[in-house]
Fold these 2 entries.
Entry 1:
Amino acid sequence: MKNLLLSLFLLPFLVSAQSQFWQNRLKVDVSAAGSQDRTFIYFSDQATDNFDPVYDSYKTPSTAGQPTLYTRIDGNTGIIAINTFSLDYLGNPITLGMQPGSDGTFTLIFQYVNDMPLGSVLYLHDMQDDVWQNLMLDSTYTFNMLLTDSNDRFQIFTSPSPTAYGVDDLCSSGAGFAVDLPSILIDGQITSWDYLLSNSMGIEVGYGSTTGMDTIEVSASDEYTMVVTFDGMTSTFTDSVVIGAPVSVTLPVDITSNAGETVNVTPNVSTTGGTYSWLLDGSEVGTDATLDYTFLTEGTYNLVLNYVSDDGCEVSQTVMITILGTNSLEDFLLRHSLEYLTIQNEVLYIGMNELENISEIILMDIKGQVIYSISPKTMNTAMDISEYAHGVYYLGVISNKGSEFVPIQF
């Protein structure tokens, strides 16, 4: 059993000798008059946050009168000599404890702090004396401890590295310099980072304080330098930002038309190409660059155009369309040079005064679907309607006066 425990203790060193399994590490030494001990903390993309015999080892207490330094794993009652966490654990506090062996004055020395994430937060909290120490600036901590004091006395606060990078936007909105800064609770306050953003000419274009994820907007394409600082720790990032030309879409002012008439809507778009989606009451009614739509009933309608440029820029615009009450049949006939419209024996007869004025006659059902269409060749046109159910339909003409529909019933 003794040999097995020894092999488990040495296994992380064997792994380390074969290949560097860790990305970040700390070694903590404790010393007092004539005695010392140490413990190790690693962060690895191969490890979990639970006890793993490949990377973790339990601690064997020191001989009587000697200090025993250890860390802990959440949910595990054992004391740990070699403690390996996943990289995702950075940002969570780690319990550092010590069984003093005797009353005395002790010194903790944190080594390999430069192997922690670049520019990261690294603090020690002495919970008994309520002392916070930035280990990146001072890696040695001296304290007094009695045998009767709580052993789980310290917490180590870590974080991932701060990051910052340029964010392009070909649509001219949202471009800037994005930051992801460690947001850690230190001494009762969330870490607040000072930042300074400069362009390629060295001119300051932004400064302030922030934490977590944020984007500092810029107004021009350029190469920028971002400097972030927290409690004496500074990181510098340089990246370019590309801002595209804005895409604008305008629609005509509010439109008023008559029921049965076809409304044409032509947008003014600042670029070519792209896709169009015309929505009426949430339903798509067209995908062309212009819309021709016949409103068969009076009312007020909101027509929405969703435009997406070839660069992926999205613009939405809305126009209000007011449709007035249906025109009288008499006005309809007069406006399009029709002499008469009558139904006899399930045949619709249409007479024209000027044949050249009419290019097409259309019959639509109540849903607006075309069910019959004819280009008249003579002054008198007959349309067989015997196969259609009785109800309300819309008769339309396309003439030199435009297109127009009027309800009829048979």
Note: The first helix runs from residue 2 to 18.
Entry 2:
Amino acid sequence: MTKKITVTYSASANVDSYGGDRENIHISVEIDDFNDYDDTLELLRTKVLEKLNLRQKHEELLSEYDQTRREFIKVTEQLKFAYQQWELASNFLKTQGLKTDTAEFPQEALTNLSKSLPATSSGYPE
């Protein structure tokens, strides 16, 4: 009767970008033949590191998404400010009798912005 051998591989990685939480992955398998040890260990290593890299990539994508969302919100606020300034200037020109036929600010720009505000990384709008 051959003795079974347990091959174990484990690794850790930061779960978040700030280095606070760590994720540990441990994987073990029993083999019958010691000659399979190196190949088995390499297979376990590959599987664990694939999982950790996927998690890291997921965190990177969430971070990139959140950065893009913040930029979108900033541009939206700038557009709303431009709209307010447009209205003030238009009212001033009309009140002073300098220009009574000022063009309207493109309303579809503001309407489309409110409809396209992206959700947070959690998937829920703020």
Note: The chain has one domain: 5-115.
